[in-house]
Amino acid sequence: MLTSYIAVSMPVLLYPVFWDTIFTVAITFYSGLVPGLIVAAGFNPLMTVLRCAINGTAIFYYDFFYALCGMVIVVVTWAISHNKKEFFFTRMVTILYLLIISLASAFASCLCASLLDTFVRLVF
Fold it and tell me: What string of DSSP letters covers 54-108?
């Protein structure tokens, strides 16, 4: 719910940060793969419906497919961070792991969105 509130209020707050991704990664890191996938799969369709209701526009169902990008971020985050013992060696190791998670999930999410734009958009 917090991610939905922040996403709706983001145009007002003018923050250039993807809060939904930050909270999805945090949930995955602390709670595991399944809760992260639930949040990632539910957030995008919920926000699409809310945005269309607030703006009074029609729902474009293609936008629901972007939930796959969030799910890819969750899987990459979980794959790197499921063994949390390594995070607590030193502060530098923790920072390097977080940097690796950020870069790998950003690359995977961009690749997923590009594939969606390239192939799925042709159907719609």
Answer: HHTPPP-GGGGGGHHHHHHHHHHHHHHHS-GGGGGS-HHHHHHHHHHHHHHHHHH
